[in-house]
Amino acid sequence: MSKQHAFPILQIDGERDALLAPYRHAVAHLGNAIIQPGDESALKAPTVRGSEQARVTLWDAAFATLGLRWATEGLNSVTDAFLAAFDASGYVPASLDLATGGVSPADRDLARVAAPLAAMAEWELFKLRGNRERLEHAFDLLKTDFDYREHHARRRSGLVSGAAGPYCLHATGRFMLGGRVVPSLASGASWIDASCMYALNARVLAEVARTLDRKEEAGELEWALRDVAAKVNARMWNEDDGWYYDLDEHGEPLPMKTLAGVWAILSGVAPRSSSDRMVRRLSDPTQFERAHPWCTVAASEGDYRRRDGLPVGVARADFNYVVCEALAAAHHYAAAFKGIELHLRRAGKVLAEVGELYLAYDPDRDTPAPLGDGSSGADSPVALALAIQNTLGGLFGLRPHGQRAELELVPQIEERHTIENLAFAYGLINIEVGQADKSGARRRLDVMCDVPFKLRVRTGDKATVHEIQPGLHTIHA
Fold this sequence. Notes:
5-stranded antiparallel β-sheet, 14 helices, Maltose phosphorylase, domain 3, alpha+beta
């Protein structure tokens, strides 16, 4: 891989080092998945290839940015092409044509109901890279995009729906007949994932506004978040079942339990009592915890598998990221670590057999699962990028907070492990975490860096913060 796309070097002592096979495969191949402006496309900035040859999507770009931001130098974000295609009426498009660099006239209406994930990508990029100028530029565009959605995307009920493609609706098997999403079934419904992504958009933009000291806009966005959250909790939460459900055109719950409900935890919509009940569902093998976690459709559903044996629900790297972050937000770090470890282990096993990483897997077997358009998703950019994010963020427990120059480390791996050339706060950091002592003694951390930063070491709900200056330091945590 070229130097400009170099990523941190990882190692784990012992047999667990095999968990890093997907990561190493991803960093070796991800650079080839970038589309540059030029002869191949009319895009205004680089982005990642999608499952369709003629088009790229914001869903892929937003999730790919989560992994690409860990590159030590060069390209970090691939959402720029979408922000550059900002429409005069005020929205960030869901997809772009490579031939024109803009939105296809046939897709213009779909573009207006895009999943609002660009704000999530920009915020996570800032927390690691700390580029305030970029954040200010992105905020102005994304706030205008949010205002457009506030006036055009929400129903009278205050809830939200969307379009099947931009929200990857096929992944959760909802509103489908014969293996395809039926627009007439989906168009009149209110979706739990679309409503909670909307809330996540408001929450993230409010955090950005506070960081930029734009207090009035932060208050406006926080009010919108509370308004959406109140409506979701009042109408979409099932107290008896402990899960969030879509509503049909009459406002009645649609009884299909899917991972779409987990967006309620990640967005901050779900109160603590609800999120705790949902975590128990996620850890229940009769529900979402499968051999390859987490299944996008609960195993308790009657049509968990189709007549041809293919799963209706799959284990996808993007949804696994959402679950992992939701569990971390609910302070269930051990459950998040367990799921990501199993995911990487199963993905690594398939990788060893066929030499490719996939976006979706059969939740019960070591085989890839076809995507909604029938493609395999083999070595797709979003699959490669999320292998990087799920390894560094989930397995190694790195959680950056660039706005306060703080890097959080949640050391779940018991064996000695090392991270070299980690880019953070305009510098490079090397970390070696010593072997865990079964007697409960503190672990040794050796840290070498060329910039000052704060290292927060978290174990469960307990955390200690260490002020690190440039040089070599030994910490017992």
